[in-house]
Design goal:
Oligomer: homodimer
Bound molecules: 3-isopropylmalic acid
Order of helices and strands of chain A: EHEHHEHEHEEEHEHEHEHEEHHEEH
Largest interface: A-B, 61 and 61 residues
Helix content of chain A: 40-55%
Distance between the termini of chain A: 19 Å
Number of strands of chain A: 14
């Protein structure tokens, strides 16, 4: 039987609860497909800060790098919000992305027919939405140098960051995006602010150049302000979106909220080689932590992405995806997606129900 | 009687049509309040490019600076989209903002009861939305240096921009925002990405420091990705938002689309002294230009903002605002806001109807 080693990073808040569910689901789906997992839990985020004083201990990064894939719960919480930058849980996440060189962040935003009412958008606008945002994750203004604090010529204090992209960075994320669009509906929309920013003009030029390798994919371009509007006006117009780190942060969150069920949405962060990082897009929700209220499905679906994109185990991935749909069809709902006529369950029970359908 | 000189910049596409309506409305509202206007039309945008080869001729900027207020229609169009940066209509707009030093961009996004169905959001989510986005307009990544193209240490081509804010820049926009919130419902939300960007940490620090001058205003902070979500989830939670140039570009457009009627939305750009710049938030809509189809109400309402914020003529402003509401109440609608049971009119007829109610 096949064997994979998986690093689990439960993190903070509801992270440990949802990871525990996803681990059980992975184990069962794997065993039914002749796959064995070797799990290693490592500290990260606020809990790592409390234990060893840094948000990403060296041992955690090392273990992650040596494994076949990494599954993260969630990080952060009020407790650490005022920490200095290098002692923020978020900084640990950025270090992990950088350390694993996972430059391509895939964020699907899908409105499931079972949950269309959860959207704040009118039914006819929300139903059938199925967007994949491909976000550049290890470059741009998140990592660009110079950055910091200083004084300008007039002796005024300043804070500054650099938005910068190099050829190889745009080329590689563009290729991932074109490949992704090709496997979906063949439409790619590149989002930038090329009417104002040189970094965006450069981005657009490289995307157009890479497009020559993908004549079967239909490429369009949109300014980021317009994209933010179009996601509200008519999200169905989008198939695959590719954009830089900061615009991707904003637009993927907007797209996910358009589905109305962010407790359902997974993500995958992939590099050229080495392990991928898989995590739900929701946060650590400290206010409901340890109350068995969290929705574990985003993490369970992240585990499915781990199988599909991280390990190439499509059959095991499909088992999990179908089990989630079955469970929804049976009417099981955690509080965040509950509506009248369904069965309200906690995190654990939701996990047990999914297991029954794997 | 009082006299004001107004520079009109009709611009491109539907710009001339909507400016012509707004000019008539200004004239009438003014005359009823003992105000006389001296209008001067100047070229700008694509039409200036075609005429004299630059998007903002020196004479235009000079005339604008010497006048009491500037009313802009819209600029841009497919025709000039591939122009080099210094020959883009958009560059003319950025030069105008910089030249007039209008650092504070006020963008209201209001859902009128008459138009609540135009929103793609569910009625219960959209109704009553009334957000004011205060966007910093002459700083940040739009103007920061260094910027441009080059090569990195590895000899790779790069494109780059600088996000930078100095003390005085944040302080002055924060003061405008606190004053604005004070006149509204006393709640200000400052949006940034202070968990990642130094420029945002600096922004937040300065906003908190200025808050001491406004103990009556309730200040909160939100990350930009969360703000993009919250505008979709529950836009009514916001009163006044203050944010940097690029986040303001994205969020104000998102907020305006949430109203569903961007043909209705005005904007004001103000400096510390000197004339303000007033313009509808919609674009030049080249596809419907010269067909008498444009909605002139965003420009008419921009003229009302000109009277109120630019000249302090509140009574004349109120006349225009009320005339617009009356006209909507009578059921007149241009195509973009048309719904069954109302009267479909063109740009000119809409203008004539507004005049009847001024
Ligand atoms: C927590 C934060 C640093 C992170 C980001 O901005 O990338 C988050 O918002 C995300 O999108 O994963
Ligand atoms: C046309 C463009 C340069 C401009 C901007 O980005 O500021 C526009 O989108 C706006 O918001 O007024």
């Amino acid at each position: 039987s096949k064997r994979y080693s998986i690093t689990l990073l439960p993190g903070d808040g509801i992270g440990p609860e949802v990871i525990s569910v996803a681990k059980n689901v992975l184990n069962l789906a794997g065993s039914l497909e002749g796959i064995e997992f070797n799990f290693q839990e490592m500290p990260m985020g606020g809990s790592a800060l409390d234990m060893v004083g840094v948000p990403l201990p060296d041992e955690t990064l090392l273990a992650a790098k040596k494994s076949d894939a990494v599954l993260l719960g969630a990080i952060g919480g009020y407790k650490w919000d005022k920490n200095e930058k290098h002692l923020k849980p978020e900084t640990g996440l950025l270090q992990l992305r950088e350390g694993l060189e996972v430059f391509a962040n895939l964020r699907p935003a899908t409105v499931l027919p079972q949950l269309v009412d959860a959207s704040t958008l009118k039914k006819e606008v929300a139903e059938g939405v199925d967007v994949m945002v491909v976000r550049e994750l290890t470059g741009g203004i998140y990592f660009g140098k110079p950055r910091g604090f200083g004084t300008n010529e007039d002796g005024e204090e300043i804070g500054f960051n650099t938005e910068v992209y190099a050829t190889y960075e745009v080329d590689r994320i563009a290729r991932v995006a074109f490949e992704t669009a090709r496997k979906r509906h063949g439409k790619l929309c590149s989002v930038d602010k090329a009417n104002v920013l040189e970094a965006s003009m450069f981005w657009r030029k490289r995307v157009i150049s890479i497009a020559a390798e993908y004549p079967d994919v239909e490429l369009s371009h949109m300014y980021v302000d317009n994209a933010a509007m179009q996601l509200v006006r008519n999200p169905k117009q989008f198939d695959t979106i590719v954009t830089n780190n900061i615009f991707g942060d904003i637009l993927s969150d907007e797209a996910s909220m358009i589905t109305g069920s962010i407790g359902m949405l997974p993500s995958a962060s992939l590099g050229s080689s080495g392990p991928g990082l898989f995590e739900p897009i929701h946060g650590s929700a400290p206010d409901i932590a340890n109350q068995d209220k969290a929705n574990p499905l985003a993490t369970v679906l992240s585990a499915a992405m781990l199988l599909k994109y991280g390990l190439g185990e499509e059959n095991a991935a499909k088992r999990i995806e179908n089990a989630v749909l079955d469970t929804l069809n049976k009417g099981f709902r955690t509080g965040d997606i509950y509506s009248a006529g369904n069965k309200l369950v906690g995190c654990k029970e939701m996990g047990e129900e999914v297991l029954k359908s794997v």
